[in-house]
Design brief:
The complex is a heterotetramer, with two copies of chain A (about 300 residues) and two copies of chain B (about 250 residues). Chain A has one domain: TIM Barrel (Alpha-Beta Barrel). In chain A, about 30% of the residues lie in helices and about 20% in strands. Chain A has helices at about 80-90, 105-115, 140-145, 145-155, 175-185, 225-235, 250-260, 270, 275-290; strands spanning about 10, 15, 20, 45, 60-65, 70, 95-100, 125-130, 165, 190, 195-200, 215-220, 240-245, 265. Chain A has an eight-stranded parallel barrel, surrounded by six helices. Chain A has a four-stranded antiparallel beta sheet with strand order 5-6-12-11, with no helix packed on it. The two termini of chain A are about 30 Å apart. The radius of gyration of chain B is 17 Å and the shape is globular. Chain B has helices spanning about 25-30, 75-80, 120-125, 165-175, 190-200, and strands spanning about 1-15, 20-25, 35-40, 50-55, 60, 65-70, 85-95, 105-110, 130-135, 150-155, 160, 180-185, 205-210, 225, 235, 245. Chain B is built from five helices and 16 strands. Chain B is an alpha/beta fold. Chain B starts with a strand and ends in a 6-residue tail after the last strand. Classes of the chains: A alpha/beta (about 300), B alpha/beta (about 250). Chains in contact: A-B, A-C, B-D, C-D. The complex binds flavin-adenine dinucleotide (FAD) (2 copies), flavin mononucleotide (2 copies) and FE2/S2 (inorganic) cluster (FES) (2 copies). The site of one FE2/S2 (inorganic) cluster has 13 residues of chain B, from loops. One flavin mononucleotide binds near residues 71, 101 and 268 of chain C.
């Protein structure tokens, strides 16, 4: 079993295996480290950072929905400065890839964040979140607009040599065009998908269950949509894809790889079983073993249509 | 904080829709503190998706107790578990009640299911003097098992004082001229709000255990904010709480 | 209880109550009539009709997903001629509104269908499906394109005086702009939402579980998305909305009305409990009774934000 | 076709992961025909979302029987039901086997769980001569209860003939020079395909009961197409089937 090669690459980023934990569902790694072995994972993606700290949205921020959940955290985060001071020391010790996710309200802020952070050795790559549905400025105003995504990619590219992954919005009919723009502007990869815009109301108070009114839908409910988006990108654009959306187990991870993902991210599942990532790694090894797959990358885009 | 597969040792129906369950969770039992909670996976499938948080009601050797009422689909499923079933428990979570420092008398203020954490707190407080105020909508919802010296209040007067727990408690404090006490409270938001106001006005030492929607329960989702009184943003109920000093948060 | 007024209007279409059964989930009414009392409903929307009969897609056409299902029926239908001959006689006897849903591969075909059918008295309104994700021609090529939706609305409007409801695609970031275009071109109402594009693969065969590769996602999984779309339209455009997506019970129906729906459609739920529509009517009556609501229309758009 | 809330009267495990359940469904029992199926809601919640289709295995007075194996989450839940539980059943659905017309001998051909409908068919055929061919992967998966004159075939030879049901059946027909028979078959697709080919080549009267994914089970979703042999589009397995003349559909 040990002879199976699980490693994968995202542009110039080498991962020991394709299993990453998704931004916003793993904090900065310290809490979840008590419940799972992070060093066994391909990597973790840190909570979206903005230049300055953000308090996030007022409560209620989350609500459960059928096979999913809505969240409107509002990018609560410690800001770049404290991140470097307080979080990097812990992350530095981890034997896994650290992907730093950035969210911002202006193109300048994206550039500024990446400029500051690119010299931090611990950070192996940047994931640029242009698709947060829960903030007034930035977020989907960028993520649903082709030219904004192009400009952000281009300008972030100009200030770092580290791999740049653009995290795409699923709330568009043509996600592969966004992937194409990312490729053209020098992005190394795309992540798909971020959450879908959703909402939920209390019929007695007639108020939205989450204070922000709308939130982002995640969890198993969105997996079929995410699979379709990854496949759409794979069939149209030659760029590495990180598959995200409703992954609960190794079968889901394998499905994403088959439709074209070079790596996957586990999000909501961490809240329920923080060891999901590790279990996926084990499950993929066994799967390869049974299927006589030598290199896990053989799975990538191996769909038969 | 760990995940423990725990065998259900017994289930007792203690009210119309209220149950007490006893689980064998030696690892969690060893480290748990009163006021902490566990996040329970109520089914083996992905439905319902999220775990459900419940206060640790008591600890006895290798076993932990929970008390819950049927609220929605998750607690409905939990109520159907039988002896021998295995539950996946994440805990202990949160800070728990602060019992350090000086106080002569512990005052418990519990509303409805808010009684849940007090048997454990009473046990750990040992010989300390405890006076408890237990409120509920009516007599059938009063949970006073294993709660020391309970004074009862019901909204409809079907048991004890007719009115709310906070009135009962404040009357008592005045009447008995209590001093050097600390209030530990848990219950529905309106009750906690009233108690918070009362204890701040009187400058009483008061801890409140709050509830809110949670996804992870251990600090990674940022889903459970509560506003800090000092204007410095939010605290996380699951990690910085669920117990707060009444002065520190806005309800 | 009987004094509660459940009636609602969609443009000039009067419904005895807001509960409709959705297109493609009730056939032409005859099978489901054995299992539920159709005359108790506000109306039924017939399976999408095209000018000529369509065989639909090859199997497998459906697959279950977490709290949802994917379908790629491919608009299997009997065609306008047989519909008039074989189905109208049954529909004529029903004491409920008959909304005829039309799907086509060209603007001319939409117009032709409506032209032929507008003289059929039994048909109370048309629902124009511009958002079927499961056909190569028409479908989302129209539904995700503002100017196509405008032209279809305009040209269909020109050939009928009956109420025209345009069924919108949720696969766009700006559904309210589509609703706005419908209003401007003389459409009476919009239905929201049709299914979301999704897919699912078998990890052992590496083949898509549905032959068409992608299908439309429906069921409770999509309810939060549908609620957000209806709310978006309600907040931006003054046009009656028919809310659709994951409605399983009266609470879901009430939630859609609160965020702005003047009526609702029950889809996937019919497959599991064909009596869902009737139970929703009963549930709404009881709800109004408990909440002292005299006219159910008071609920419409009564959200508090 | 109706929905009946049916009490589970008994459950019997008849194989490693195979169960037989008996439900009290007087209304469905009265009208059911062999080869028809029911669409069962396995849980009270919305998970799993869709009903699960199962052949009516037998009818006895007011009771109906189903035989099923644990396949995925739905059948897992079904297998955990206990006596007294109430299931929501939609049926009877589909056309059922055609037993009209002239034939002296009924030949049953069953593969794996495809044995399910034959006890009921045998009962309704009464005194007619029946010869059954029952196949499975191995001996522990052979389902022959209440099936008349079973000849067994197993892929691994652990019981009866080593090989498949269709070989066994064709050998038998040749050896005994059978005439005026009708074949009724149910089982996995590869078996039905082989049998279809064989019976078309020999111009035998053969009915096949097919399975496919279904959403509604009663003709409103168009989700269960099967291609007609005559080139005229699709038939619906749930409504036009699940039993077809082997000549009429493409497998
Ligand atoms: C720290 C903490 C301790 C708790 N201790 C207890 C206890 O000891 N005994 C007890 O009976 N209940 C307790 N609760 C409340 C309990 O978690 C909810 O009653 C339960 O989650 C309801 O789940 P459901 O599926 O039955 O209800 P549903 O209404 O179907 O739940 C839907 C969603 O809302 C969430 N939710 C619903 N009500 C609440 C609530 N009051 N607080 C937080 N989330 C909620 C659920 O977790 C779930 O995600 C506690 C809550 C918290 C946060
Ligand atoms: C007309 C008919 C009669 C049947 N009779 C029997 C019977 O008597 N005994 C028996 O054990 N099984 C029978 N089956 C198959 C049975 O319906 C499936 O095994 C069952 O639905 C699996 O559900 P699951 O949740 O356990 O599996 P999952 O794999 O979790 O199911 C996922 C989805 O796929 C569908 N599905 C999975 N396998 C099948 C299949 N083979 N056929 C159709 N849909 C499937 C399910 O209905 C569900 O929607 C019959 C199927 C049909 C169509
Ligand atoms: C509570 C929560 C917070 C999230 N925060 C972020 C974030 O800060 N930045 C980001 O790029 N994505 C964020 N996401 C999106 C996830 O990274 C992921 O794209 C999405 O949840 C879909 O994956 P899942 O279905 O596995 O959860 C968040 C998701 C959740 C549920
Ligand atoms: C099997 C199936 C077939 C459908 N066929 C049609 C159709 O022919 N025309 C149409 O406008 N919508 C069709 N729909 C979409 C539904 O009318 C509805 O918009 C969608 O399913 C969302 O509602 P639900 O979640 O309640 O099912 C179909 C949906 C399903 C599940
Ligand atoms: S519940 Fe996730 S951070 Fe508190
Ligand atoms: S399963 Fe719905 S039409 Fe056959």
């Amino acid at each position: 079993m040990n002879s199976i090669d699980l490693s994968t690459t995202i542009g110039s980023l080498k991962l020991k295996n394709p299993v990453l934990l998704a931004s916003g569902t793993v904090g900065y790694g310290n809490e979840i480290a008590q419940l799972t072995d992070i060093s066994k994972l391909g990597g973790i993606v840190t909570k979206s950072l903005s230049l300055k700290p953000r308090n996030g949205n007022p409560p209620q921020r989350i609500v459960e929905t059928p096979s999913g959940m809505l969240n409107a955290i509002g990018l609560a985060n410690v800001g770049v400065e404290e991140f470097v001071k307080e979080k990097i020391p812990f992350l530095k010790e981890l034997d896994t890839a650290i992907i730093c996710n950035i969210a911002a309200s202006s193109i300048e802020e994206y550039v500024e964040c990446v400029k500051i952070l690119t010299c931090i050795e611990t950070i192996n790559a940047f994931e640029i979140n242009v698709s947060c549905p829960n903030v007034k400025e930035g977020g989907l105003i960028f993520g649903n607009d082709l030219s904004s995504v192009a400009r952000i990619t281009e300008q972030v590219r100009a200030v770092t040599n580290k791999p740049i992954i653009i995290k795409l919005s699923p709330n568009v009919p043509n996600i592969s065009e966004f992937a194409s723009v990312v490729k053209n502007e020098g992005g190394d990869a795309v992540s798909a998908i971020n959450t879908l815009v959703g909402s939920s109301f209390d019929i007695y108070t007639r108020k939205p269950k989450i204070k922000n009114i709308t939130g982002g839908l995640s969890g198993p409910a969105i997996k079929p949509i995410a699979i379709a988006k990854v496949l759409e990108i794979k069939r149209n654009v030659d760029i590495p894809i990180i598959g995200i959306g409703g992954i609960m187990n190794w079968k889901d991870a394998a499905e994403f790889m088959i439709v074209g993902a070079s790596a996957v991210q586990v999000g909501t599942a961490n809240f329920i079983n923080p060891n999901t990532g590790n279990e996926i790694v084990d499950g993929l090894i066994e799967f390869c073993d049974r299927q006589r797959i030598q290199k896990l990358t053989e799975l990538i885009g191996s769909y038969k249509i | 904080m760990l995940i423990e597969k725990s065998v259900l040792e017994s289930k007792r129906q203690i009210g119309e829709k209220i149950f007490q369950i006893k689980l064998r969770s030696p690892k969690i039992a060893t480290v748990a503190k009163p006021g902490q909670f566990c996040n329970i996976k109520v089914s083996e499938s992905d439905f319902p998706l999220l775990r459900r948080p419940f206060s640790i009601s008591n600890v006895d050797g290798d076993s932990i107790f929970f008390v819950f009422d049927i609220h929605g689909e998750g607690t409905e499923i939990l109520s159907q578990k039988e002896k021998g079933n295995v539950l996946d428990i994440l805990g202990p979570l949160g800070n728990g009640f602060d019992i350090s420092g000086d106080f002569t008398t512990a005052i418990f203020a519990a509303g409805g299911l808010g009684s849940a954490p007090f048997p454990f707190l009473a046990k750990v407080l040992g010989n300390k003097e405890i006076i408890s105020f237990v409120g509920a909508r009516n007599s059938s919802l009063v949970l006073q098992d294993d709660i020391p010296n309970p004074q009862i209040a019901t909204d409809d007067g079907t048991l004890g004082y007719k009115g709310n727990v906070v009135e009962l408690l404040s009357n008592y404090i005045v009447k008995h001229n209590l001093k050097e006490f600390r209030i530990f409270s848990c219950g529905p938001n309106p009750m906690l709000k009233a108690l918070q106001k009362y204890s701040i006005e009187n400058n009483f030492d008061c801890q409140i255990s709050v509830e809110c929607a949670m996804a992870c329960g251990f600090g990674i989702c940022q889903g459970c904010p509560i506003e800090a009184s000092n204007g410095d943003g939010y605290r996380l109920v699951c990690k910085d709480g669920p117990v707060f000093n009444a002065k520190d948060v806005k309800l």
